[in-house]
Design brief:
Keywords: Nucleus, Repeat, Ribosome biogenesis, rRNA processing, WD repeat. One of its GO terms (biological process) is maturation of 5.8S rRNA from tricistronic rRNA transcript (SSU-rRNA, 5.8S rRNA, LSU-rRNA). This is Ribosome biogenesis protein BOP1 homolog. Pfam families: BOP1NT, WD40. The structure is a single chain. The termini are far apart. It is elongated and about 145 Å long. Among the domains are: about 45 residues, no CATH class; about 240 residues, Methylamine Dehydrogenase, Chain H, CATH 2.130.10.10. The protein has about 675 residues and is an alpha+beta fold.
């Protein structure tokens, strides 16, 4: 029989069945609270008056998904929609939601609008127990047992109330009739002494806390009392806001604004009349008055006016935020290393060399460091033994000595002395016979040798034999203030008795001059600048602007790239010639004139001496890395000399091998400072 014919003959099959419709009749709530998903009576029992008989397969036409009501739980009830794990959005454009177990379409229910669903939820008292089942397109009402189960799950409890998560312990061992313990072993020693592993762990925690690897939450500070008249700019909760600018505070009332002020604050009638003659800007805005009691005080006549002016000040007057920098003065100081890390350097006086009868103007140390030469205003030149202070030799030159300079070659023991317009080159009679023979050949003048290379007698320097002192005398036509040796150039000229005039035109009066330690470069210090010349190329290399009023001394670092310049205003300038022509550092250390500055040959030290009778010792480290600036650290102030005729320490020199400093003063003394 065809399906169409069967439908025509069977009067119990409705049109809705033919169109594969499905209607869900909701069952009434039982007293026992049946779970959702159970078949209704219309689905389990045939309708009244239905005479339909089972079809050829033995099934009733009006039967639902189940033949009879089942007592199984909800987990065992098969879902009505049998589409499986198919995404439900595939059926968005279809009139049905899926298919039942017989393959018939399950039509979608008509959904209420928002207003209708809201009114339905308000009228339904059990709406909070209903859950929408999107899979079957129906609303399921939870039973009381299911609600209790959900509440227990929300409280992190077991789903079933009869489950005990903490059952009583059941001892499986039977102690009845036991005569011996389970173990008769002695207690181990580790149970009676502290654990070393725990101690190590505690130490690790302590170190981590000190290093800041482990941090603890700081307790929140509660808002305590605050000052009522405090400036609003100090409040943290408002100062963090960039657009907030606190309004200026009004002046607090004084005694004159009291209702009963003292008599001296109350103006007389004449003073009140004089106020009327003043300009409005100069007139006092408040005139004190006296009342016997507060009940007799009238209303303030300018209250509204002052309130309006105050509003104008607050809202219309522009205000500018002033940033206050809270900087610790200690943080502005440069972080310098400790003086203990920079030792050795001279700190205390060790030996005093006495013998001169007038101010000692100049000193010079022999290259080996065993002897020291000194020149004085008393017209004498002396040689001292450094370690004992014994005077070895003395020359009476008959004129005040300006400068003494020892030859830098260790095997040529000769001394240059400048006095007036003459320069004496003396034989110190030190060394063995071979060295003395060589020195005598150098200090012998041949009369046939021309006096200078230019032949101009007006500007030449005359070389004369000094038989009185056993040396050579160089006769100049102007006063010689200082003498400087070069390791190669001056000995070469001394052996040939030649004089060379530098072809440089100086702009200003020359104060001091010195040679480069290793290259043929000559430094000339004038009052305002330092000029650097190349002797081979005979040209100006660089000009250094000191920025000082009047320079007085100059010294070149053993490396040759840095130099220091002292001035008569007590300032000391450090120049880094690779960096700039301006001073790298300017130190204001002496209150009076600086007479000399000097570098140490091997230690990172330099010193300065002044007419204030003090010598300053500095640490000056020059690094080979060009990106790192020199390190300058003040170390020590050496005192001990006394002033004479306004003069203090006139000269200072370092020992060539030890961190010792020699000072010569106007008090006729030479002092040695050691570490």
């Amino acid at each position: 029989m065809s399906p169409k014919k069967q439908n025509e003959e069977d009067p119990h099959v409705s049109d809705s069945d033919t169109d594969s419709t499905y209607e869900d009749s909701s069952a009434a709530d039982d007293d026992d609270g049946d779970s959702f998903g159970s078949p209704s009576e219309s689905e389990s029992e045939p309708a009244a008056g239905d005479d339909s008989e089972p079809d050829e397969h033995g099934e009733s036409d009006s039967s639902g998904l189940h033949q009879e009501e089942s007592d199984s739980s909800e987990d065992e009830v098969a879902p009505r929609n049998t589409v499986g794990d198919v995404p439900l959005h595939w059926y968005d454009d279809e009139p049905h939601i899926g298919y039942d177990i017989k393959g018939k379409k399950i039509k979608k229910k008509d959904k209420l609008d928002k207003l209708g669903s809201f009114l339905a939820n308000v009228d339904d008292s059990k709406n909070w127990r209903k859950v929408y089942d999107e899979y079957n397109d129906e609303e399921v009402e939870l039973t009381k047992d299911e609600v209790k189960l959900v509440r227990r799950l929300l409280k992190n409890r077991a789903p079933h109330a009869d489950f005990n998560p903490y059952p009583d312990y059941v001892d499986w061992f039977k102690w009845d009739g036991a005569k011996h313990p389970l173990s008769n072993a002695p207690e181990p020693k580790r149970r009676f002494i502290p654990s070393k592993w725990e101690a190590k762990k505690v130490v690790q925690y302590v170190r981590a806390i000190r290093k800041g690897l482990i941090t603890f939450d700081k307790p929140k500070e509660e808002d305590g009392p605050y000052l009522l008249w405090e400036d609003d700019s100090g409040l943290t909760e408002k100062s963090n806001h960039l657009a907030y600018i606190p309004a200026p505070k009004q002046r607090l009332p004084g005694n004159e604004e009291s209702y009963n002020p003292p008599l001296e604050y109350i103006p007389t009638q004449e003073e009140i009349n004089s106020y009327q003659l003043m300009y409005e800007e100069d007139r006092p805005k408040f005139i004190p008055k006296r009342f016997t009691s507060m009940r007799s005080i009238p209303a303030y006549e300018n209250a509204m006016k002052e309130c309006f002016e105050r509003c104008l000040d607050l809202y219309l007057c522009p205000r500018v935020r002033k940033k206050r920098l809270n900087i610790d003065p200690e943080s502005l100081k440069p972080k310098l290393p400790s003086r203990k890390e920079l030792k050795p350097y001279p700190t205390a006086c060790y030996i005093e060399y006495k013998g001169h009868e007038d101010a000692v103007t100049s000193i010079s140390v022999e290259p080996s460091g065993q002897w020291i030469a000194s020149g004085s205003s008393d017209g004498t030149v002396r040689i001292w033994e450094v370690e004992t202070g014994r005077c070895l030799r003395r020359w009476d030159v008959g004129e005040a000595v300006n400068c003494v300079a020892w030859n830098p070659l260790p095997d040529v023991h000769i001394l240059a002395v400048s006095l007036g317009q003459d320069v004496l080159i003396l034989n110190t009679h030190l060394g063995d016979d071979e060295e003395q023979k060589k020195i005598k050949e150098l200090l012998s003048v041949d009369t046939s040798t021309p006096s200078d290379d230019s032949g101009n007698s007006a500007t030449s320097v005359r070389w004369l034999q000094d038989d009185k002192h056993g040396g050579i005398k160089l006769k100049f036509f102007k006063t010689v203030t200082a003498v400087e040796w070069h390791r190669k150039v001056l000995i070469h000229h001394l052996s040939k008795k030649l004089t060379q005039k530098l072809p440089f035109k100086l702009h200003g009066l020359a104060v001091r001059s010195t040679f480069h330690p290793s290259r043929s470069i000559f430094f000339i210090c004038t009052k305002q600048s330092v000029r650097v010349y190349d002797l081979l190329k005979r040209k100006l290399i660089k000009k250094l602007d000191t920025g000082l009023r009047e320079a007085s001394s100059i010294a070149v670092h053993p490396g040759g790239d840095n130099l220091i310049v002292g001035s008569k205003e007590g300032k000391l300038c450090w120049f880094d010639m690779d960096l700039s022509s301006k001073p790298y550092k300017t130190l204001k250390c002496h209150p009076k004139d600086i007479n000399n500055v000097v570098y140490h040959r091997s230690y990172p030290l330099f010193a300065s001496c002044s007419d204030d009778c003090n010598a300053y010792v500095f640490h000056g480290m020059v690094y080979s890395d060009l990106n790192q600036n020199p390190l300058i650290v003040p170390l020590e102030i050496l005192r001990g000399h006394t002033s004479s005729d306004g003069r203090g320490i006139l000269d200072c020199k370092f020992h060539p091998r030890q961190p010792w400093l020699f000072t010569a003063g106007a008090d006729k003394l030479i002092k040695l400072y050691c570490h």
